[in-house]
Write a structure and sequence with these properties.
about 575 residues, 2-enoyl-CoA Hydratase, Chain A, domain 1, 13-stranded mixed β-sheet, about 45% helix
Length: about 575
């Protein structure tokens, strides 16, 4: 009875707010949604200048929700996206690209405007019905490149020796410190990954721009285009300024014999059927109130949405102005226990976008997810990178989703230390070490590992590696031999990983959420409340207050991570668009 009264009161308040907005002219009619995608698209919510402010831009989950609402909104006939200087990863691009394609399949006309663009921007834009570009812009679609920097030469000059032991022939996280070039297994792995990701670009552009893959490859090899050149080869459809957007929208579906005739036709059409634009922020607020009002008609349902990003470490999660910097095992374990103990939360969706980190921290989080899965479904959505320790924790999920381009796997570990004896000698520094216990100085930066110590470290990481492989085999229902064959520290694209049984399905946040609804017994259309973890910062929490202090108020434990965690499961390289 109390819940019924509360829902009735809430529904009345929301209805009153909408009525006042209509009477005061704040709720103007619309048929075209405008969205700006610029800069960094965060996995987790981004804080404003002060901790108590709302996020300055929607994160990936918010953008996915926005595009789904637009797809289902009968008032909308078109969506305009302005894309400029994106700084995002491959999986996030594919998540958004799929949402744009879903808009088109729902009958919405999607127009993308580029001031200029590179491979990232164009790959996303190519999913639209039409692509427009500024007259003075440049289109730079040059492909993919992977870079690995090697530090051994610099370390040699400084008198520093990196002693690194690895488990897995492809586990190359230590190579930058011990080599000056790629090893053959590392080169083989990177070429295989780049081949598949490059094929995904070619296949995606070919499908949505209605051209063959050979032509797309030729265009990427050409790489650099002025706007009129890009239009001539069919990469873009319009050239003009942002104030030309209404004309392009009005003339959609009509053949344009010349720009002047097309514009004249658009002006005449605009008089009878003008475009009524609404900005993304206003649309989110307005549509959000409508969705909350509609949700009150259904029995309440809540899920948890957790983000695991950055390096996985022991301790607390650290966040910055651009999202999660590192995920602390203590924070994740505490949040998962809270989720398990909350009877109102039906299940949890965990977004993993991490290159790994501490082997111990990854194992602790893996165990906690397993415990949570015993009580509630846990669906895993892999982001740009879910490798090594990041993949380790994802194993515990009920179902694991990856994008085709998610960097996945790297089932392997490394251990080691830096020996600074040569550097100290160059600086005229000496150390005298007194010990009690044969191996008391094992991790001293002044003494190198001897043969016995090196053998012991190798034995330790081999043990961890074998345990890692066993857990993959157990969680993925594969044999040890099958996993070991595709482990060895090797990374795969998401679709390569799916072919090898390392993930369950190809998909992004929306597909993972639909699976979670199914697991908890809800149809896909059923509205759910989403509780986020880690919790957004509050001004009253100590970490939020510390952000206002110089240097962000960070308090670090003494020593480097290598001194606290001997075995690391982490990815060594990064992929970037050129």
């Amino acid at each position: 009875m109390i819940r019924f009264l509360f829902h009735s009161l809430t529904r009345g308040v929301l209805w009153t707010i909408d009525l006042i907005a209509r009477l005061t002219g704040r709720h103007k009619p619309y048929n075209t949604l405008q969205i700006e995608l610029t800069g960094h698209i965060a996995e987790a919510g981004v804080l404003g200048f002060l901790p108590f402010r709302r996020p300055t831009t929607p994160d990936l989950f918010g953008l996915t929700t926005l595009l789904r609402w637009a797809r289902e909104d009968e008032q909308l006939s078109a969506v305009v996206l302005t894309i400029d200087h994106l700084d995002t990863g491959w999986a996030r691009l594919q998540n958004l690209r799929r949402s744009i394609q879903a808009l088109r399949h729902a009958g919405k006309y999607v127009l993308v405007y580029l001031a200029e663009g590179g491979t990232q921007e164009y790959y996303l834009a190519s999913a639209a019905n039409a692509v427009a570009m500024a007259p003075a812009g440049h289109l730079t679609v040059t492909g993919l490149a992977a870079e690995t920097m090697f530090f051994k030469g610099a370390l040699d000059k400084l008198g520093i020796e990196a002693q690194v032991t690895q488990a897995g022939q492809y586990k190359s996280a230590g190579e930058p410190f011990t080599r000056t070039s790629l090893s053959e297994p590392h080169r083989e792995m990177m070429n295989s990954l780049l081949d598949d990701l490059y094929d995904q670009i070619v296949e995606g552009v070919s499908a949505t721009r209605n051209t063959d893959t050979a032509t797309v490859r030729e265009l990427i090899d050409q790489g650099l285009f002025l706007p009129h050149e890009a239009q001539e080869v069919g990469l873009i459809d319009h050239i003009g300024y942002e104030d030309d957007i209404p004309h392009w929208l009005e003339s959609r579906g009509r053949p344009e014999k010349t720009e002047e005739k097309g514009r004249a036709a658009a002006v005449n059409s605009a008089e009878s059927d003008p475009n009524l634009f609404i900005e993304a922020g206003a649309y989110l607020r307005r549509r959000g109130r409508l969705m909350r009002r509609q949700a009150l008609r259904y029995p309440p349902a809540r899920i948890a949405f957790m983000t695991v990003g950055g390096t996985i470490t022991r301790g607390e999660t650290e966040t910055g102005s651009d999202g999660i910097q590192s995920t602390g095992s203590n924070s994740v374990i505490r949040d998962l226990k809270q989720i398990r103990e909350n009877p109102e939360i039906a299940g949890v969706l965990i977004r993993v976008s991490s290159p790994g980190g501490s082997g111990l921290a990854s194992d602790l989080v893996w165990h906690e997810i397993l415990q949570t899965k015993e009580e509630k479904p846990v669906i895993i959505s892999l982001g740009d990178v879910a490798a090594s320790g990041g993949y380790y924790i994802a194993l515990a999920g009920t179902t694991v989703f990856a994008e085709e381009g998610t960097v996945t796997g790297s089932i392997g570990v490394i251990a080691g230390k830096a020996v600074l004896h040569g550097l100290y000698a160059q600086l005229g520094l000496d150390k005298e070490i007194l010990t009690r216990g044969k191996r008391a100085a094992l991790f001293s930066d002044y003494l190198a590992f001897g043969p016995a110590e090196q053998e012991r470290m190798n034995s330790e990481i081999q043990s961890f590696y074998q345990d890692f492989v066993k857990k993959v085999a157990q969680c993925r229902s594969l044999s040890y031999e099958t996993v070991d064959a595709c482990a060895q520290g090797r990374v795969w694209s998401g679709r390569q990983a799916a072919a090898r049984g390392l993930v369950d399905r190809i998909g992004g946040l929306e597909e993972a959420l639909a699976e979670l609804k199914y697991r908890v017994g809800l149809p896909d259309y059923w509205p759910v409340g989403v509780e986020r973890f880690p919790k957004p910062a509050s001004l009253l929490r100590l970490p939020s207050l510390l952000r206002l202090l110089p240097l962000g108020g960070r308090v670090h434990a003494t020593g480097w991570p290598w001194e606290r965690d001997r075995v690391w499961a982490i990815l060594p390289f990064s992929l970037r668009f050129l």
